[in-house]
Amino acid sequence: MVYTETMKLYSRKQFLGAIIITAVAVFVLCGGAFFWQFVQNVQNNKEDKGSQQKEVAVQKPAQTETDDVSFDFQTNVFTDVLQVSDNLENYTQDELQNISVYQKCQDGVVNITTAVMGLNWFLEPVAQESGTGSGVIIDRRGYVVTNNHVIDGASIIYISLSDGTQYEGKVIGADATSDLAVVKFNPPENISLTTIDFGDSSRLKVGQKVIAIGNPFGFDRTMTTGIVSGLGRPIQTDRNTIIRDMIQTDTAINPGNSGGPLLDTQGRIIGINTSIYSTSGSSAGIGFAVPVNTAKRVVSELILHGKVQRGGIDASFVQLNSTIANYAKLAVNSGLLVQQLEENSKAAKAGLQGGTEAVRYGSYRNSQIIYLGGDVVVAIDGIAVNSFASYLAALESKKPGDVVTVTVVRGRKTLTLQIPLSAKEY
Fold it and tell me: Each residue of 88-97: pLDDT tens digit?
């Protein structure tokens, strides 16, 4: 009875109304809580923004000051480099020397790019880049000295200066024997070219510091340093000629350095970088330069005559080998066998004797007639002659009319003859 009466106290409408009221109350309470949390977050964000703005306001002047210092520093570094003497304590003596030479000479070094004529798909002639090298401006009128192998066979030659300007060059003269060439370009009248002076290679000493500036692998005006590692080196070139008195250096010389200057610590040319000894094609610490005293003589003649006038002996020679020496029963098996002399030549008048016995030498298809019985030239002015290359090297600096001391073997005797030289084309 009691349980039943209790259930009658709540109607269905009353029960639903209570649920709705409860839900509304919960919603209001949750909404108030969320609203309070939102207000707190907004206030916190405002405080964070205010603190960040304060921090930025503090940091801004420092950042601006840092930017100004960086910009000034770059400018000052540039100024210091131009005026090294103002801050001597910042550099070692060796560094000052390097910087001074580079500043003095970099504008006198050029990049040489060559092109050859080829055919495109339509068989039309087009210029194709063939190689790069270096060169030295030696005259304000636009004369540049480089290696012969840099410009050999080129149809077009471009000369690029340190300021980026490029000119087309013209070959004035080339000499394969010394691997030197002179190229000229025509600068505008308002341009004052930087030239590099010649030094004196006869005063070089092994151990002396040297500097190379060039364009290895296309990196313009790269400077490397080293020492003179050796003097008087005879180096055979690709053309089977020997260049005597080459300067050996451990200065890094790579492809693209050819034709560039080897300098002393005064910024004077002491050599023209020419070749390297390497099994990889890159620098192995053994490089060679044509001595500047040779370059001065050759360059002067190339500018004046377009070629180098050299003297030679009025005779035709055969390079000896063991086969010829054994057949002719000669006392030596190396040297140049005198075949024939020009009639009434200076060499004939000086006492040189040619061969009289004609024999066929060589294979069936490549045989030739040579003459045996003549003198064998074994030395010129004390320089051993055992091949055509060494013969040309011995006469490289000789002029027509010069008299040379020629050592010959005649039979079992060794004789010395004084022979005037005639003009020869090599």
Answer: 678 888 888 8
Place of tokens 């063991």: 322
Nearest Cα to Cα of residue 387 among 378, 395, 396: 378
Q: What amino acid is encoded at 295 in this protein?
A: A
- Directed axis angle between helix 93-105 and helix 12-82, to 10°? 80
Catalytic one of 134, 175, 178, 179: 179
Element (H, E) at 96: helix 93-105
* CA–CA gap between residue 41 and residue 38 (Å, rounded): 5
Could you read off the pLDDT of 3-30 as tens digits, one per residue? 333 334 445 555 456 566 666 665 656 5
Whether 179 is a known active-site residue: answer yes
Residue 301 tokens read as: 């003649």
Question: Coil, helix or strand for 362?
Answer: coil
Q: Which of 258, 275, 283, 390 is catalytic?
A: 258
Return the ∠ at Cα 358 (arms to 353 and 361), rounded to 5°. 115
| Alpha carbons 344 and 341: distance in angstroms, whole number | 8
Secondary structure of residue 270 in the 3-state scheme: strand
